[in-house]
Design goal:
The protein is α+β, with helices and mostly antiparallel strands and 142 residues long. Helix content is 16%, strand content 42%.
Length: 142
């Protein structure tokens, strides 16, 4: 198929409408979940000079946006990455933020202590997710 300017413009319009539909679905859904469960529990496994912290599974309710689900590294480690497992295969559900964060318990403001995600669930069904952080222990931190 030959791509013409009209084809590209049409594809961009379709994509914009789809994204707007997802945003509207979340915005018009139930109340926004302002934060993950206050009792978010984690298990941490360290191998060699790296640790992997993962939360227990928790629910993202239908038609909501989960804000600030965060996993922190052990106190002496630095976050090197993170993300989320689970969710939905629907295009109406998506991670909208996946970033390193700073802990208020240390003295600096460097976002190197944990990993935060925000998740939109524009579907009509709840689903479960797990948040994780990958951390380096001090002996491997430059």
């Amino acid at each position: 198929m030959k791509l013409t300017r009209s084809t590209i413009v049409l594809a961009a319009v379709v994509a914009a409408v789809a994204v707007a539909g997802i945003a509207a679905s979340v915005a018009m859904g139930k109340a926004t979940d302002k934060s993950p469960p206050s009792s978010l529990q984690a298990s941490t496994t360290c191998i060699s000079n790296y640790c992997y912290a993962i939360s227990d599974s928790f629910t993202v309710n239908a038609g909501t946006q989960l804000i600030g689900a965060t996993m922190f590294c052990p106190s002496t480690a630095r976050v090197t990455g993170g993300g989320v497992f689970g969710g939905s295969s629907s295009t109406a559900a998506a991670v909208n933020t996946s970033i390193p964060v700073d802990s208020s318990s240390d003295t600096d403001t460097v976002p190197d202590d944990g990993w935060r995600i925000d998740y939109n669930n524009g579907t009509s069904a709840p689903f479960t997710i797990q948040v994780y952080a990958v951390c380096k222990l001090p002996s491997t931190v430059p």
